[in-house]
Amino acid sequence: MRHVTAWKHSSTSPSQDPKYSTEQNSEFSEGFPARYWLPAFFFPQAFLITVLQDYGRSQGISTDALTFTHHVISDTTDVKDKEFSIIIQKKLNIVRRAFKGTDPTHVGVHVFGLFIEGARWNHKEKVLEDSLPCEICCDFPEIYFLPTKISTERSNASKQTEPELYTFECPVYQTPERSGILTAAGLSSNFLTSVYLSTKKPPSHWITMQVALLCEENEK
């Protein structure tokens, strides 16, 4: 967050640059982004930890007592990057999406730009489901990471939260290889975090299918 603040104050305001038109000014807003393109970070783990630290300081809660609650934003109105044929248009679309609806009082962060391998997201039913034929990897919707105080009750990811619904703890990796250096915590350096997704099938099914969220699309 500190680096974002430094960028905000050091960057030239569009209104001060004659190269920017009034129409272009209306597409961007000042302040922190409302959405973050997670694959753009060199060290995404640090970004997520910073979000927890920032919330913990504001609420007087230790970072060790915090975790994330995840909400998948099934919004089909956003234009996909693949519809843009020019690279610069893709980059502008990312910036517009990041600053769309900026709210300085917003808690948590919205992240986008992830891909899912081995499954797909059903926007209508808001659940995880099997991939389409011949589809290995596809885009995943925006995810809302909401800092939440860890409950004293022990949670069970395989337990049904609603009738006919389970929760799958989906791992997030930086690259499709999923391999990396083993850290002191016993996790791969390629591993970022876990996202809890609703599903009608038990978690064992998705574990067998080796489902994971990726920062890079698997094009093999």
Automatic annotation (TrEMBL):
InterPro entries: DHC, Dynein_C, Dynein_C_barrel. Keywords: Cell projection, Cilium, Coiled coil, Cytoplasm, Cytoskeleton, Nucleotide-binding. Residues 8-26 have a biased composition (Polar residues). GO terms for molecular function: dynein intermediate chain binding; dynein light intermediate chain binding; nucleotide binding. It is found in: Cell projection, Cilium; Cytoplasm, Cytoskeleton. It comes from Cervus elaphus hippelaphus. GO terms for biological process: microtubule-based movement. GO terms for cellular component: cilium; dynein complex. Coiled coil: none annotated. PANTHER family: DYNEIN AXONEMAL HEAVY CHAIN 14 (PTHR22878:SF64), DYNEIN HEAVY CHAIN 6, AXONEMAL-LIKE-RELATED (PTHR22878). This is Dynein heavy chain C-terminal domain-containing protein. It holds the Pfam family Dynein_C. It comes from the Eukaryota. Residues 1-26 are annotated as: Disordered. Residues 30-215 form the Dynein heavy chain C-terminal domain.
